[in-house]
Design a protein that fits this description.
By secondary structure, the protein is an alpha/beta fold. The protein contains 10 helices and 7 strands.
Length: 240
């Protein structure tokens, strides 16, 4: 599902993952989310070890723990979203990064559109983008629709295919994608997306040459700024 006013055109489309990509892992939001999901399993009556094992199993098997919970335990996805994603104190943790905003601003809109591609629900996606002050730079957000009993998510093919359809993309080679999850990037690459980039966050001062090549991935970067080099054909001349 998407938040969009998109129409078909022949420009490139930059797909940006949100969580742990548009903000640093040091925020520990992933860990906080994991703790809340674990508590949710416990609230369903599972013992500590069983909850931990099922959480990992469902995440590994389905891409999201929520998918497994919906398939096997008939839970209310909207309730899960409120108690897990919705309870995260994002406003006290996240803050805008002028460098990230400038990076996205410098994508030449005559050459490329900018969308977000996330496994979160729309409420979380919009909340994060608003806090980071990036929502005005994003044309559309393709998200997991928790309201649908059989929703798809990264890295499933259906998710990428539907994202392209909703965004009006007919040529997969026009898709430029960055994500911090290896399986998500490899899935996009296998579908013929034009340049699929794995974001493996590193400290300032490293160079792209320090990253090992990863099978099934076009490029590995350690800082988002390196997208200016990788996708220089869609950035403004002043930023290249």
């Amino acid at each position: 599902m998407a938040i969009t006013n998109g129409t078909t055109d022949d420009r490139y489309i930059v797909w940006l993952d949100i969580d742990n990509t548009l903000y640093p892992r040091s925020t520990r939001i992933a860990e906080l989310m994991g703790e809340r999901i674990h508590e949710y399993f416990l609230s369903l009556g599972f013992e500590e070890n069983d909850a931990r094992e099922l959480h990992l199993k469902y995440y590994t098997q389905y891409g999201l723990a929520l998918r497994g919970l919906m398939k096997h335990h008939d839970i209310d996805a909207q309730d899960f979203d409120r108690r897990c994603d919705g309870s995260l104190p994002l406003e006290t943790i996240l803050k805008p990064d002028p460098k990230v905003r400038k990076l996205i601003q410098d994508i030449d809109r005559s050459k490329a559109r900018v969308w977000a591609l996330t496994n979160a629900y729309s409420t979380h996606a919009k909340r994060v983008l608003h806090i980071l002050q990036l929502d005005d730079l994003i044309e559309g957000v393709f998200f997991c629709d928790y309201a649908e009993p059989n929703f798809s998510c990264k890295p499933e093919r259906e998710f990428y295919d539907e994202a392209m359809r909703v965004a009006g993309v007919t040529d997969a080679s026009k898709c430029l994608f960055v994500d911090d999850n290896l399986n998500n990037v490899k899935a996009a690459k296998s579908l013929g997306w034009g340049c699929s980039v794995l974001y493996s966050e590193r400290e300032e001062g490293h160079t792209m040459k320090e990253h090992p090549q990863v099978e099934g991935v076009d490029v590995v970067i350690g800082r988002l700024e390196e997208l200016r080099q990788v996708w220089k054909h869609v950035f403004t001349d002043a930023s290249s």
